[in-house]
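debug: dumping io for the single-chain case to check the tokenizer round-trip. Nothing else runs in this session.
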Amino acid sequence: MALSLYVDTARWRAHQKTVIDQFPGLIPVCKGNGYGYGHERLADEAARFGADMLAVGTTYEAARIKDWFSGDLLVLTPFRRGEEPVPLPDRVIRSVSSVDGVHALVGARVVIECMSSMKRHGVHEDDLGRLHAAIEDVRLEGFALHLPLDRTDGTDAVEEVIAWMDRLRAARLPLHTMFVSHLRADEQARLQQQFPQTRFRARIGTRLWLGDHEATEYRGAVLDVTKVAKGDRFGYRQQKAASDGWLVVVAGGTSHGVGLEAPKAMHGVMPRAKGVARAGLATVNRNLSPFVWAGKQRWFAEPPHMQVSILFVPADAQEPQVGDELVAHLRHTTTQYDRIVER
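debug: decoded output
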């Protein structure tokens, strides 16, 4: 009995193809938990569709994935002096976000990140004069811009890239390749048309692997079902059942990522109102689980355990049976499944 990830492989790969066709030179991203699929699976998929480069989050990820992917590996986390050295092959390319970092990587293959409106990391316009000399000691693969997802101020992503292209050109820096993130296909096409001598390469993870929500589904198997009456005590904390129903033990707990939720940016009155309502219910130990039974998302009977969750299903619903599987609405990037099932 397991928490399973079901994958409609044909549909998933058809979606991959639509994204690859829209972004010539696409670099697939495989970082974190491999977007829920795992590093080895995504490395295999990238090799299958002929990617020549795979982007990973850290040097530690590169050290693991190097045995599964034979092409170039681009480490997205910028190099910092004093970081723990990790043995890596020459086909690994390091991201660098400072002039000092370039000086410290003599002989290495590097991509230099420029400071975008994300304001996360990158070289500034004032650094470009010093970069001209620094890049003589490295093998420069290109420059990169990591752009924001939302532009609430109405600015144009293409114009931001063009502004950086103009700065790099004015500093007489090579513009043979620009690595970009979070551009639409039409925006990349506009840039390619305006700068035909530069190759634009989109680094894409979420849109590539998770863009078709109907291609995958998590399900947790029912392990036990116990009937309870209103007032019966149960669980670690011996809470009382609020009404008649069933306690349903389902595969999937905190070790799988069940019950974990990343903070969300909320826009508008309704999402904020829902957030306040959820917080209020949590103060009286009412927490909605990700598991669905009989068409409804069910409540946790108590906080999820390490490998299982206990749900409360009221008596007016159909009784679950051991071996049934409950669909679970889980975030791919925080979930670890027990098994993957190809459909």
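debug: round-trip ok. The longest strand covers residues 216-228.
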